[in-house]
Amino acid sequence: MVLELIIAATIAISLASLGGIALLRVNKPAEEKILFALVSLSTGTLLAGAFLDLLPESLERTTPSTALATALVGILVFFVLEKLIVWHHHHADHAKVSEKPLGYLSLVGDALHNFFDGVAISAAFIASPALGLTTTLAVLLHEIPQEIGDYSLLIYSGFTRKKALLFNLGSALFAVIGALLFYFAAPFVQNLSSLALAFTAGMFIYIATADVVPELQREKTPSKSALQFLFILIGVALIWLVTRFLE
């Protein structure tokens, strides 16, 4: 059943590229409220997934020094990957609509990001169904706002709406490829699953602290900031409850 769960989870993550686009059809105030909640929730689920699930599981399977060093590698790898994606997005801000290569370059970066998402989900499900579900939930809540941004960039780069939708979905499907490659490689590489869990924890920590939290910090209104913190706590509680319930 593990392989079936991995395929189902990564397909669900890939389809988030379509679900996220649906938000663009709601009115602007409703869209902003939905994204406000999702971004805050994803912060909680990413951090909770890293510190309450992934790192403890990795520490049980390998030495603390190995697990923590691998988590550090995950942070550094995603620093470089994020730099490449941000660089292309930054140049797209000053580009003419006809400069489609920028859209394709962004798709390459996003496909690589999604590939690692698939690896993370596969490693988590191999460890346990509970860990797989919480990891999928954390990735999913982060993916929807990201996919909206990716879709918007492709439109800005000159893609038609239909082409942007199809290419964005194609990029998202790299999660399935990453998951399957990891699933079939894991039995042949010693400690690959435990290392992947720690790497994923580093990935989650980086995305939460370097990508999502800075967005939250732009909000200066005390009442909205308190609401952000509440949604973060809900995200943490959600991961904790799902894990405990499944265990």
Walkthrough of the structure:
The protein has 247 residues and is mainly alpha-helical. The chain is built from nine helices and no strands. The chain is globular, with a radius of gyration of 18 Å. Mean pLDDT is 83; it is low at 94-99.
Poorly predicted runs are 94-99
Radius of gyration: 18 Å
The proportion of residues in beta strands is under 5%
Distance between the termini: 17 Å
Structural category? mainly alpha
Percent of residues in helices: over 70%
Number of helices: 9
Number of strand segments: 0
What is the H-and-E element order? Answer: HHHHHHHHH
Q: Give the overall average pLDDT.
A: 83
Tag the structure with descriptive keywords:
single chain; about 250 residues; mainly alpha; 9 helices; about 85% helix; about 0% strand
What are the SSEs and their pairings?
Blueprint: H1 2-22, H2 28-61, H3 64-93, H4 101-127, H5 129-156, H6 161-172, H7 174-185, H8 192-217, H9 222-246
Outline:
The protein has 247 residues and is an all-alpha fold. It has helices spanning 2-22, 28-61, 64-93, 101-127, 129-156, 161-172, 174-185, 192-217, 222-246.
